[in-house]
Amino acid sequence: MQLWGALDAGITMVTNQKGGHNYAMDNGIAMPNLWGLRGTEDLGGGNKAIFELIDQFNLGTGAIFPTNGGGLFGRNAYVGLSNDQYGKLTFGEQYDFMIDSLLRFDNSIYIAGLYGFREGPFSGLGIPGNSSGNANFDRMSGTAISNSVKYTTPTYYGFSAGMLYSFGGVPGAIAQNDGKSFGANYANGPFSAGVAYTYQRYAQLANGMAGIRNFGAGAEYKFGLATLNVLYTNTKNTANNATINVYQIGARYQITPALSVGGDYELMKGNAVLASDKANQFSVGVRYALSTRTVLYTEAVYQKVSGDNDPKAWIMAVSSASSNDRQLLTRVGILHRF
């Protein structure tokens, strides 16, 4: 059994939150503050029993993070079987394939961490139980699906795939409140690509028969010490037809074994249901590794929005929106893994 974790903290300055500057000790940005347990048991014949339990917490207060209802292992919890020839089958609270198949192509995780993911002026998307109605709308910062069964294939000639189904638990209505996800990936030398689809129904939308649908595609190419990423995601509320398209491109460069720099651009576009609001977001970051487990970093994120109804800029994980159409933050921090 392995005990592992990550601790992240730093100082963030935001130019406009409700009209004023804000300085804060923020945490869980470059990586969520996590601790977890994972283990395997060799069953013979190439078979293994596997499990993983992950808790997310607030480093500033020590409190359990309210992920998926605030349970101790609300970030991820599963048990299952694996075989090198036939793949892996698991049961529990698990990430869908927007994470498994596409996260590696989201350059923002290497540049700005949580601040680089998507929020913006799209509260009309109306994700149930979401703090702003649209935070992390394309699921890329990690949202587990409860009561799920998940199968992942081995890799054959560079190809791998997987599927997930979440039971809604409503007698006589198997589709009500259910969820499903699919993903596929290909890797060959410096090139890799992936596609994914997730549809999660919610009890609050059309009595559990409508939900939030996500799909996306991404790719990466490595040019020596440089890496280029592109990513597209589409998010739709099937109850009100609110839709957001995201187009993203980013690059990073390893200057020395310890020092890396990178930049990222995202265009988020809402449809007419969302007043045709748009957000342009730019991120830059520098990371310096003190060791294989400890990193110092600095980053900046700028968002500029436009649309039909005087939208307000809102960078992901900032506690409140700007009072106008732009928001800028800068941060210095430290990340330690164990």
Automatic annotation (TrEMBL):
InterPro entries membership: Gram-neg_bact_OMP, Gram_neg_porin_domain, Porin_dom_sf
Gene Ontology molecular function terms on file: porin activity
CDD domains recorded: gram_neg_porins
Pfam families per record: Porin_4
GO biological process: monoatomic ion transport
Keyword terms: Cell outer membrane, Ion transport, Membrane, Porin, Signal, Transmembrane, Transmembrane beta strand, Transport
Transmembrane segments: none
Superkingdom to which the source organism belongs: Bacteria
Porin domain segment(s): 3-307
Complex formation: Homotrimer.
Principal location class: membrane
Signal peptide: none
Topological type in the membrane: Multi-pass membrane protein
Name this protein carries in UniProt: Porin
Gene Ontology cellular component list: cell outer membrane; pore complex
Location(s), subcellular: Cell outer membrane
